[in-house]
Amino acid sequence: MSGTVPRLSPATVEVPHRPDTVRILHLGPGAFHRAHQAVFTEDAGGGWGICGVTQRSPAVVDQLRPQDCLFTVVERSRTTTSCRVVGTIRDVLFARAEPERLRAYFTDPKVRIVSLTVTEKGYRPDSGVIGQLVAGLEARRATSEAPITVLSCDNLTGNGTVVRSRVLEACARLPHGDSLASWITDHVRFPGTMVDRIVPATTDADRAEVRSVLGVTDEAAVVGEPFRQWVIEDDFAAGRPAWETVGAQLTDDVAPYEAVKLRVLNATHSLLAYRGALAGYDTIAEAVADPVLAEEAAEFMEHDVLPTLVVPDDVDIAAYRRRVLERFANPALRHRTTQVAMDGSQKLPLRLLGTVRDRLAVGEVPIRAVRAVAAWMVYVAVGRDRDGRPLPLDDPLADRLRAAAGGAGQPHAIVDGLLSVREVFGEDLPDHAALRAALVEAVADIAAPVR
Ligand code: CS2
Questions:
Q1: Separation between Cα atoms, residue 313 and residue 311, nearest integer Å
Q2: Ligand 1 centroid, distance to 101 Cα (angstroms)
Q3: Ligand 1, residues at Cβ distance < 6 Å
Q4: What CA–CA distance (Å, rounded) separates 162 from 170?
């Protein structure tokens, strides 16, 4: 079929007004970036074009390039679907295959921002992203020397500070890294951000829908919920789009917003992903439609997370919590539990273990947070849902986790094995007797119907 339908391009659809100049270099132009920052940037106007840089594979380049980088954002509420073609991305490149073009963008003084959506694991020192940033900044210093902003848009606590530290640590490993580090300190800003929009992986059914609505084949279409939020620390070295005119919040302290989002939304997402996948639910919406899981999620937010938060004045936290559950319940999104379950070793410390630590520090064992961690442990150790269907373990530490879990053995063996993975649980949690006991009990309870 798709052979007979023309490809999305400036010749086949009505094209939005497009910026002619690339001013933002974006590392990781996956679905989330296209449905979030690309949309805010288009709405803000002012001529900020984006060049997307793909890291691991040329897939996104192959999707976007034949379409002159146009793509559709399909917005799905419970009851309505709308499609919009976005034109802010003006170029794409595959870093490994086109290092010269990448360098040219890094050194171009018209490029004012390097933004990133590279997921939690992209900030690991060995991920390649940090090396790419350092090499790019080094080239900029050697040429135009123009100031620039590095804007992390990933779900990390203190994402701006994290990327800045990783970059400076990488400089320290270079032969003449000191002078580069001091140039970076003087010329590069690293504001923090909180980003939010649920953007599941695009499916063939989504692409078929775009084909029937727009009459074109769009290999780069993305699907998102209607909700979107962006809180940005207003600390830019060389200007930025007027994102505040199109709904972004510019602030001097992102941390409390980020904590609310990670500990309420992302943590509950993970809870529902592991509990839901083990119970045999394909999607987050199905998981949260199960009254037992919905109650567990609501109680987790209320009793375990809420006491740990410093809620910003302009956030109505009761409404926020309700809204999160409503957003998860949107059946039109079909967000797969196994997609949210990915990379648990990287996500748990950011989403769940801060809450666990804060509650343990005041003498409370947060049993619902413990159940969420236990569900991850069962997911890793047993690797099957209650009907015996295999569950994928997609995680940069997969081999180590599997070895540590030692198969679907006794609950205490699973817990002790996984707690010993220091990269996830640190030095403090493995030795906490009350936590360990609560985990063993929760693993036994959750694993029982699965085995
Ligand atoms: C999700 C997030 O995949 C996941 O782990 O929790 O990507 C979530 O959908 C977004 O952060 C929502 O803004």
A1: 6
A2: 31
A3: 155, 196-198, 266, 269, 339-340, 347
A4: 12
How many C-beta neighbours within 10 Å does residue 85 have?
A: 22
| Interval between CA 48 and ligand 1 midpoint (Å) | 26
In this structure, the residue with its CA closest to atom 3 of ligand 1 is 340
Task: State the pLDDT at residue 305.
Answer: 98
Q: Along the chain (451 residues), what's the average pLDDT of each consecutive run of 10 residues? A: 81 93 98 98 98 95 97 97 97 97 98 98 93 97 97 98 98 95 98 98 97 96 98 98 98 97 98 98 98 98 98 97 98 98 98 98 98 98 96 98 93 98 98 98 92 64
Backbone angles phi, psi at 223, to 5 degrees: -120, 135
Q: What is d(CA 139, CA 105) in angstroms, rounded to the nearest whole number?
A: 10
**In the CATH scheme, what architecture does the domain 22-251 have?**
3-Layer(aba) Sandwich (3.40)
Ligand 1 centroid, distance to 125 Cα (angstroms)? 22
Q: HSE-up of 114 (CA within 13 Å, CB side)? A: 29
**Residue 72, phi then psi, degrees to nearest 5:** -100, 140
Nearest CA residue ID for atom 1, ligand 1: 340
Q: What is the pLDDT of residue 16?
A: 86
**Buried b / exposed e across 103-123, counting CB within 10 Å, b at 16+?**
bebbbbeebbbbbbbbbbbbb
Q: What is the pLDDT of residue 392?
A: 98
32 CA closest ligand 1 atom index: 7
Q: How far apart are CA 112 and CA 48, in angstroms?
A: 9
Query: Which atom of ligand 1 sits closest to the CA of residue 339?
Result: 3
CATH 3.40.50.720 spans which residues of the chain? 22-251
Determine the Cα–Cα distance for residues 253 and 232; give it in Å rounded to an integer: 8
Predicted local confidence at residue 56, as pLDDT: 87
Answer yes or no: pTM beyond 0.90: yes
Counting from 1 in the atom list of ligand 1, the atom nearest the Cα of 347 is 5
Give the architecture-level CATH label for domain 255-450: Orthogonal Bundle (1.10)
Residue nearest atom 9 in ligand 1 by C-alpha distance = 198
Which of 155, 159, 271 to probe ligand 1 with, by most ligand atoms within 8 A of CB?
155
Tell me how many degrees the CA angle 306-308-311 measures, rounded to the nearest 5.
65
pLDDT tens digits for 221-237?
999 999 999 999 999 99
Ligand 1 center to residue 212 CA distance, Å? 28
Distance CA 157, CA 160 (A): 9
